[in-house]
């Protein structure tokens, strides 16, 4: 089953803004004071924010290259694995 698309308002957020909102939602859910419907809505938004942050991190990782020098002196680049 495919994951639902990230809502446009979430997709428009920077990584930092999405992470800050996700952290706020987690704190609210941990407090356990929200009504059930509100908690479910917050959880769903948090899931979208988490997926958005993961996507942004993958995009950043793909942009990070390590310059390499081969034995013959040629210069190239290879992806850096961030784990």
Would you kindly provide a brief summary of this structure?
With 83 residues, the chain is of the alpha+beta class. The protein has helices spanning 8-11, 15-31, 36-63; strands at residues 65-69, 75-79.
Would you spell out the secondary-structure blueprint of this structure?
Layout: H1 8-11, H2 15-31, H3 36-63, E1 65-69, E2 75-79
Antiparallel strand pairs: 1-2
Description of the molecule:
This protein is 59% helix and 12% strand. The protein is of the alpha+beta class and 83 residues long. It has a two-stranded antiparallel sheet. 8% of the residues are buried. The model has no long low-confidence stretch (mean pLDDT 88).
Which bin fits the share of residues in helices?
A: 55-70%
Total number of strands? 2
Cα-atom radius of gyration: 19 Å
What is the general shape?
elongated
Low-confidence stretches: none
Order of helices and strands: HHHEE
Tell me the distance between the termini: 26 Å
Features:
83 residues; alpha+beta; two-stranded antiparallel sheet; 3 helices; 2 strands
């Amino acid at each position: 089953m495919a994951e639902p698309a990230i809502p446009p308002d979430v997709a428009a957020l920077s990584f930092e803004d999405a992470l800050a909102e996700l952290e706020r939602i987690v704190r609210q859910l941990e407090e356990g004071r929200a009504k059930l419907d509100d908690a479910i809505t917050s959880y769903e938004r948090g899931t979208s924010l988490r997926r958005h942050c993961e996507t942004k991190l993958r995009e950043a990782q793909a942009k990070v290259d390590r310059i390499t020098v081969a034995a013959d002196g040629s210069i190239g680049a290879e992806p850096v694995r961030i784990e």
